[in-house]
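Now for a chain:

_____
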Amino acid sequence: MDTLWSSINDLIIKTIISIDSITNSCIDMYVPYQSNCFDLIGFDILIDDNLKPWLLEVNMSPSLACESQVDVNVKVPLITDLFNLICIPNKIQKPKKSNKSY
């Protein structure tokens, strides 16, 4: 399993290196304050029977809309991790369950 994750990591790093000049050109053109911005990049990776990862596509700024329960189950933890990574504190309080029955 460590070998699989290592291969996926290698694939992602090589992909980011390959798009570096294009990404930097876009940042130079459209982002006035580069030190305080980030972009989420989505990687679609297929893993074959031999546990070899294959890059299918890369999504720049993938949609974070939640149109189904599967979207909620996948994207809410992703957004939470993203905010934790960039040090935005979690101020959202989960609603307390009420013991009242109506």
